[in-house]
Amino acid sequence: MSGQTKxxxxxxxxxRKPGHALEAPFYTDQDIFDADMKYIFGQHWIYVGVEPDIAxxxxxxxxxxxxxxxxxxxxxxxxxxxxxxxxxxxxxRMVPEGKTMxxxxxxxxxxxxxxxxxxxxxAEHMGEDFDPKCRGLKKVAIRSIAxxxxxxxxxxxxxxxxxxxxxxxxxxxxxxxxxxxxxFESDLIEMGNWKLxxxxxxxxxxxxxxxxxxxxxxxxxxxxxxxxxxxDEGQRDADRYGELAVACHARWEGExxxxxxxxxxxxxxxxxxxxxxxxxRSGESQTLDTKAACRIPLGGLKDKSVGGLSFWTQxxxxxxxxxxxxxxxxxxxxxxxxxxxxxxxLVHKDAVEGVDYDLQHLxxxxxxxxxxxxDLVEISQQGADDPSFEPGPYSPYTEGLVEKFxxxxxxxxxxxxx
Length: 418
Prior knowledge:
InterPro entries: Rieske_2Fe-2S, Rieske_2Fe-2S_sf, Ring_hydroxy_dOase_asu_C_dom, Rng_hydr_dOase-A. The chain is an alpha+beta fold.
């Protein structure tokens, strides 16, 4: 980053008005996007997938984070490892993006061969003085939290992920992620900046008008509303949610299911939030009929009505854990105006499609919601590109968590440039 670019970005960061949307360059400028990739995605813990993606020894998954490509493997001892997808010979990309099964990591250029532990095992024609011990794959920091995989590209990753792990492992344990499998996965490219994708996720102000499927199981009023603005029916729904949340939290906590809100979205380097939320009607799952989509429950859960455990992480994920299935979301920037949203639906590892679950029933709520959100992100990007764009105020009642995302982002960028 040039000195002039750095000064320009620092000026934008300094004049950001709390409680308001970010200025247009944060969504449109290529230099700021490059800074995001360096200081946000290059320095923080990034959610990339689940252990069932690499369930068996020899399974591998490649995830691209900007210009960086990361190989995630499970070695013969069952340990999960991560390496830069760059050959130590002349730098060739070795494994294509996606999932595969490999006995070794073999560079297709000159056949340098690495074990699943990253050590160089074979390099032909290199001479007697060549020491293979110095040419193993470069490691990437990796941390599995109850089966959710995070990586960090920084040489010194933030240590506070251990605080998040200590709290979240208790919340996630009942859903037993490691004993699930990925029933379906979708990649959706949104026509907008990654921050617009995250901001859209952090509020439900838009839900009532845009998410007819999601608002069947999900209470939109559970994320806030302005007092005195609801009609009688809306106020009854909001009151019903409040009463249900109190009753459900007491019942779930009594059953040993952590449910209370824990919120650290903007006061830690590794920001996160969690809370177990009631599901409407039958209360079982985020489906169109609110009933469980999969016949086999997760973990040792016996009560079908355990709501939906919500888990958000900065800068790039959100998740929903229910009694019968899990939905996880990964956000990976492509360029200033395009973002990949990768969604995975997980069911019990023994569940059989067509016998224990119907794939359409399992996925239809979030398939529809993802596309609706993508459409909203696209028109938001179009607005940010318009010369007349001016940051507007956030709702103090329904967009407080958007403000926390923006405040976290501004704070982390300021710290990086200080």
